[in-house]
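User: Can you help me understand a structure? I only have the sequence.
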Amino acid sequence: MSSRRIIIAHHRPGDVTSIHRKARAYPAAPRIRTFSSRRQQPPAVAIARSSSLSRCARTGSCLRAAPRFAARTLSSTTARTNTVLPPPPASSSCVIPQLDIRQWYADPAAFSESLRRACHLTGFFTLKHDIPLNLVDDLFHESDAFFSLPLEQKLKISYDDSPAFRGYMALGTENTDGAVDCREQLEIASEKAHDSDDPESYEGRLRGLNQWPDDNDGRLKDGVTSFVEHASRVSHELTKALGTALDLTSDAFLPLFAGDPFWQLKLSSVRLPSRGDDGGASVLEDDRMSRMGVGAHTDTGFLTLLLQDESGGLQVCTDGENWTDVPFRGNGTFVCNIGEVAEIATGGYFRATPHRVVIPLSLLRSGASGVVTRRLSVPFFYNPRLEARVEVLELPDTLVWDRDETAMMKERRWKRQGNEMLRVYGRNAFKSLARSHPRVFERWHGDLMLDEGGQLKKREG
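Assistant: Let's start by predicting it. Here is the structure, written out as tokens:
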């Protein structure tokens, strides 16, 4: 068995060296190393990403009616009324693995093997958690109350007013997969005052304070704070289990998070736009908004834990061609997925899988009848500390590659030309936010610019 180690170092000022990767299957793409094991190994896969997704992310050739889930009803609003277009169909029979965090405490070996297969084969799994259900219920209740506020009240904590990319984003603000998302959201993250005057410390610019509504006696802030404590605990345990799943020690990934993990959280509301929305006319002109809540993408961080309500709509693409519905399994269950940091750190053994949110048929039907409803979700992103440097783990030779080579070759990977992932996690996270939210970037970080390849550099003059 080869040495079990991970190479992680502190950021050196001025170091923006991109991560180098090796692969055989995609000669035109950045490359990552392959694995040796007891089984014959397939070629490793290219792992670079961009916001432009393959054709399979945008189209569906068959129609399958979505279940009629109950959905939350908003206060009376002038709703969009038009012909109901069905959501893009799911067309895969892939089964999302189901795990239980209690097994990790009772039988770590069995849990680790189930986790290995889930993260290696699909990159997605559901997890029964041990967070108090009343806390989860309260979080959904306070989220629903916040999104039900008049727009002018929500805009008091606008995302535009935060250099650290925190606050409320109105419907139609964010762009994923080349089109406007049909969601509004509140962005929250690890809270720490900006503590660096170094103009080269791009990652330091992500430190800041959150914005909270001032009209609900602090209940939303208290609910989020309590939830984050529990979600961080579960994420820490999963991070240890991911190490043992690779036949390494449970602390294999922990140096990435030592001291100050940079968690992020969204309160997300997917719904049809109304004429009363800010910029509603332009939002309504985007036909994709009648079908897609959030465009296809992979998560840029390490690990995501998602709470979703009963509306449905989340789909994953595990074979590069077909989409699988991820069902609602109650408030006691997370939907979990691997991010690009974990994929890179494992040389592609764990996979960051494309996923999207289609507007559930229940929301489309209610919108056509003049009743506005929403799909609520709470994704929690467990990420390394901002200064952490990401390197590829040296994995043991006995680690088995179970993924089918044919399916791997079908999976279309995408990459924006020149968009290399940076070694320092915080720098890469800042670059991603700058690209996704140019308005905030230009307002607060005018000394920087993005070049044609999507990389950050100082603005001349």
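Now, to help you interpret it: The radius of gyration is 21 Å. The longest helix spans residues 219-245. Let me know which part you'd like to focus on.
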